[in-house]
Amino acid sequence: MSLDFGDLKKDGSKIPVTDENKAEYVSLYVQHKLVTSRKTQLQAIKIGFDTIGAELSEHLNRLTCADLMSFCCGDDSMLTAEAIIAHFKWIGFDQFTPTPQHLCNFLSDCFPNDLRRFLRLATAMYALPRSGVLGRPIVIQATSDRSKLPVGHTCHFQIDLPDYQHYETLKEKMVRRRMPAATLHLSIADRELETADDNIGACQ
Predict the structure, then answer these.
(1) Which residues pair with 152 in a beta bridge?
(2) pTM to 2 decimals?
(3) pLDDT tens for residues 24-71?
(4) What is the pLDDT of residue 29?
(5) 72 — phi, psi (to 5°)?
(6) DSSP letters along 93-107, please?
């Protein structure tokens, strides 16, 4: 399978992606996916902000990009294992099974990027609201087939978690569910970076 720069740059279809230029390809690919292909929508958002009134615009201009992300997407600094675990509602687990504690231990050992992936698996969100409260529990539903991977139901804030019993089994299944994978920041950026990286790997 061959991969070229396509429409990412002039005469891109004649330029194959190689180990030497793959960093440039990823940069152009992400720029295209995050900005160029969404330019119309981004301009509409800008027009919306520009037309909401001078007074509010003045306040918005005082906010940093991080402030706006926090207001719109949640407070990243509040995403801890303890904050996520506090939302858990366990259903179907025997009182003597160690699996709930294993999951809590697993999350406590996770880096922030991995916690984002877990939260996304359960809720489709990457950060907690600024209040630190989701407004509804994250249901951890026990299932019996230990050969299966955990399954997230984001509309219901639920994860179907087989009662694995053993910590190493739970950890292995969570990893296979693509919990701790590539560096994670924004959902769109992550997906595009991973896709680009997969494409590059395929042509090497």
Answers:
(1) 159
(2) 0.59
(3) 999 999 999 988 998 999 889 888 877 776 667 777 778 887 777 777
(4) 92
(5) -85, -35
(6) --TT-SHHHHHHHHH
- 109/27 Cα distance (integer angstroms): 32
pLDDT tens profile 111-154: 888 998 999 999 988 888 877 778 899 999 999 999 999 999 99
Beta-sheet strand order (sheet of 151-153): 88-91, 138-143, 158-162, 151-153
Contact 129, 74 (CB under 8 A): yes
Annotate 70-135 with DSSP letters as a single string.
HHHH-BGGG--HHHHHTTEEEES--TT-SHHHHHHHHHHT--HHHHHHHHHHHHS-SSB-TTS--S
Task: Give the Cα separation of 164 and 66 in Å (integer).
Answer: 39
- Evaluate whether 168 touches 191 at the Cβ level (below 8 Å): no
Q: Which two tokens stand for residue 57?
A: 């615009």
Q: Give the domains, in start order, of the chain with CATH numbers.
A: 4-72+187-203 (no CATH), 75-176 (3.30.2410.10)
